[in-house]
Design brief:
The protein is of the alpha/beta class. The chain contains 21 helices and eight strands. It has an eight-stranded mixed sheet, sandwiched between helices. Bound molecules: S-adenosylmethionine.
Length: 450
């Protein structure tokens, strides 16, 4: 069933792969609207696609046109995905042995946590689940994979008095995490002095020996582990899955992934290195069938996978800077004659404050150290006037892409789920929508228990 849905989503996305891999900054220079958007959607360029999607999701009536048919197909896939995945509530009720109280426990009630509200939301939900999963497979030792500043590991260790080993490659980040523990201990000295959270500055890879790392760090032996990770970027999540598959001592995993654009695809060359990872063990795809059928996604489609429909719908200013950036691209090509590396020019931060297009252009030209004498206020205004009528179409274009984003993310995650089911058939594996999609868009947690 899971594999069927995975293959179905892949086939459904196939005709849209070019659209999904288009780079937004080239929207005007490469005429994306006419190149990638089907004519029957272009005719509906004033329809709010997010509203239409919600309407079609909530009330089933026969589709009136091709656009509604397309939206209904996406709705159908969403419903199929809901059948094979879990909401947090379903997971708690059907899989976890106890219903936990998701109240802000010790850390929060007594003192400040020194986390962003987003991180706090994630850690508050994930820590008690990991504690229960560890009980279910009878492991004492938890490994926080790519632990960063240790938000999750510290919480698990503190609240559930567990040994947690944080593995983090960046010394600087580890150091900043240590400072945070020092600050926390000012509020609750006796508790943080005894905390069983330790860290190691290590780059994890397929050779990493957890028993050895653990005994070196804790001065005691452990033979079974739960590996957890909160936002393990790119291939780091795949590396965690491979450890689960290959290593008997890894009894369980709880993996929240992120940064899908950093994955190495087997059948698509990385645009920066021009390297295709066909012979590497860890990348996309992982499941047998997708490998056998040489399934591709593409970097820009994977980048799109991190955009959440719910968050974009709730805050439609998220992509507000894009129009200026797309228009700037026209100036860069037509006035400055730039032809290469255009997609990689990052001007994002310029748009943070509200500013006119003219101000934006001057700042951009300044930042890129381009010849200011080549443009005038008039030139800038003429570009604005020339393209102004296409502006609302970019909005529809972005909405259209975001409607597909959840399906691209699902292709990546279901591929991993199928990989686990194939590789450790005796394990129980679940994909759970853990976090609030508006607060924390990378919200899926892949859980597997041996
Ligand atoms: C997106 S951050 C998440 C950090 C933390 N889990 C959190 O939720 O705040 C991913 C972390 O993984 C670390 N990392 C990336 N690759 C790694 C590797 N191969 N071994 C160890 N740490 C790694 C990065 O330095 C970064 O701190």
């Amino acid at each position: 069933m899971t594999e069927q849905i995975l293959l179905g989503i892949r086939d459904f996305l196939q005709p849209y792969v070019s659209l999904l891999n288009s780079h937004n900054v080239d929207y005007l220079t490469c005429n994306h609207w006419n190149t990638y958007v089907p004519e029957w959607i272009r005719q509906e360029d004033t329809v709010d696609l997010y509203d239409l999607f919600e309407k079609r999701y909530n009330e089933k009536s026969p589709a009136k046109n091709l656009l509604e048919e397309l939206i209904d197909q996406i709705v159908d896939w969403k419903r199929k995905i809901e059948q094979i995945t879990y909401t947090r509530e379903q997971f708690e009720e059907q899989i976890l042995p106890e219903k936990y109280e998701n109240e802000l426990t010790s850390l929060k009630n007594k003192t400040r946590t020194f986390m962003s509200p987003k991180k706090e939301h994630e850690v508050e939900i994930l820590a008690p689940i990991i504690d229960q999963l560890a009980n279910m497979v009878n492991v004492d030792s938890i490994i926080d994979y790519g632990s960063g500043r240790g938000y999750l590991g510290v919480k698990i260790s503190y609240d559930y008095e567990r040994n947690v080993l944080g593995i983090e490659s960046s010394e600087e980040i580890l150091h900043s995490g240590e400072k945070r523990i020092e600050t926390l201990s000012k509020y609750q000295k006796e508790l943080y002095d005894n905390i069983k959270y330790k860290t190691t500055s290590t780059i994890v890879n397929s050779e990493t020996n957890f028993e050895k790392l653990f005994s070196e760090t804790f001065d005691s032996y452990s033979s079974s582990f739960l590996l957890c990770s909160l936002h393990a970027c790119g291939s780091l999540s795949c590396s965690l899955l491979n450890h689960f598959v290959e290593n008997l001592s890894v009894r369980a995993i709880a993996n929240v992934a992120c940064c899908y654009h950093l994955l190495e695809e087997k059948f698509v060359a990385n645009p920066f290195t021009n390297y295709c990872a066909e012979n590497d063990p860890c990348s996309f795809p992982l499941s047998h069938r997708l490998i056998q059928e040489k399934t591709k996604l593409g970097r820009n489609a994977r980048m799109l996978a991190v955009q959440s429909f719910e968050r974009n719908k709730a805050d439609q200013t998220l992509n507000a800077g894009l129009w200026y950036r797309a228009l700037m691209q026209v100036l860069l090509v037509e006035i400055y004659g730039l032809t290469t590396g255009l997609q990689d020019i990052k001007l994002g931060k310029l748009t943070k404050k509200s500013m006119t297009f003219e101000e934006y252009v001057w700042k951009a030209v300044d930042k890129l150290k381009l010849d200011k004498t080549k443009i005038t206020v008039n030139v800038i205004n003429n570009y604005w006037i020339r393209y102004e009528s296409c502006r609302h179409q970019l909005h529809t274009f972005i909405q259209l892409k975001v409607l597909f984003s959840g399906l691209i993310e699902m292709m990546i995650l279901l591929d991993r789920l199928v990989f686990l089911e194939e590789s450790v058939p005796t394990a129980s594996s679940y994909l759970v929508a853990l976090f609030d999609p508006i607060k924390s868009p990378r919200r899926w947690c892949l859980v597997s228990l041996k």
